[in-house]
Amino acid sequence: MRDLKFRAxxxxxxxxxxxxxxxxxxxxETFIGKNWELMQYTGLKDKNEKEIYEGDIxxxxxxxxxxxxxxxxxxxxxxxxLATQKxxxxxxxxxxxxxxxxx
Length: 103
What we know:
This protein is mostly beta strands. The chain has one domain (about 5-100). The chain has strands at about 5-10, 15, 25, 30, 35-45, 50-55, 55-65, 70-75, 90-95. Strand 5 and strand 6 form a beta hairpin.
């Protein structure tokens, strides 16, 4: 079972938060902030042991042969399968702080 961890992007302040509280009003409404985008930890880590969250942008290495490889940048939202070896992937940003990496 993976750890249930979250981070949140504050759309107004343009800031990422990792330590925050989520609470409910008891009527089904959950609050974390006024204008925040919530992202869950995927349970995976990159080659540097950095946790990979939804919305992260990954540099993914696909090995073709022992001496040849293909390097590509991938938005984790559209990645159907991460490389099987953690040394094959590296978090290089996220879609909120580094949108230019997705283009």
